[in-house]
Design a protein that fits this description.
This protein is of the alpha+beta class and 172 residues long. It has one domain: Nucleoside Triphosphate Pyrophosphohydrolase, CATH 3.90.79. Helix content is 20%, strand content 43%. It has a 4-stranded mixed beta sheet. A hairpin with a 4-residue loop joins β5 (42-50) and β6 (55-59). The longest helix is centred in the middle third of the chain and has 13 residues, at 73-85. It is globular.
Length: 172
């Protein structure tokens, strides 16, 4: 059966397939997530206001792939890393991929760990974003996240996916 378009906006569409309603990204090929790890043991996180949540959210660098034209997932991850965090990565490892919300979206997510970082700008996002960049020592991450929650901020649980793979691959 053919998909029925229920709604289509600039960045999201709502479709129905055999009675199952779900969202899709009409102008993107996926969503990339990047966990930057500095040589001195810091994790680079970002913070930004998210209208659907109604508050600031602490998260990892992320963005749409293919929304600016054809690009690989790795190139999209590299572009987002520079835009949001201000770093170029010597190494960008794809550690996991899969559905972003399997019951409600057909969008796929791709998780990268970025290492060998070189600072190239202040970051902060493109002109439409107001991103705060945080450098958190890996051994102080839990404390930092708890403090942020106490300040009324939300923590995106997708932070933990690349951290799991970091511990499995690099043993820290």
């Amino acid at each position: 059966m053919e998909d029925k378009i229920l709604y289509e906006g600039k960045y999201l569409a709502m479709k129905s397939r055999n009675g199952w309603e779900f969202t899709t990204r009409p102008n993107a090929t996926g969503v990339v997530f990047v966990l930057p790890m500095t040589d001195d043991g810091h994790i680079v996180l970002i913070e930004q206001f998210r209208p659907p949540s109604g508050c600031n959210v602490i998260e990892i660098c992320a963005g749409l792939a293919g929304d600016l034209g054809a690009e690989t997932m790795e190139n999209a991850a590299r572009r987002e890393l520079v835009e949001e965090c201000g770093y170029h990565a010597a190494k960008m490892d794809l550690v996991c991929e899969g559905p972003i919300a399997q019951g409600s979206s057909d969008t796929y997510s791709y998780f990268f760990i970025a290492t060998g970082l070189t600072k190239v700008s202040e970051g902060g996002g493109d002109g439409s974003e107001n991103i705060i960049v945080h450098h958190v020592r890996q051994d102080e991450l839990a404390k930092f996240l708890n403090e942020q929650m106490e300040l009324g901020k939300m923590i995106d649980p997708k932070i933990y996916t690349p951290l799991f793979f970091w511990s499995q691959i690099y043993g820290s």
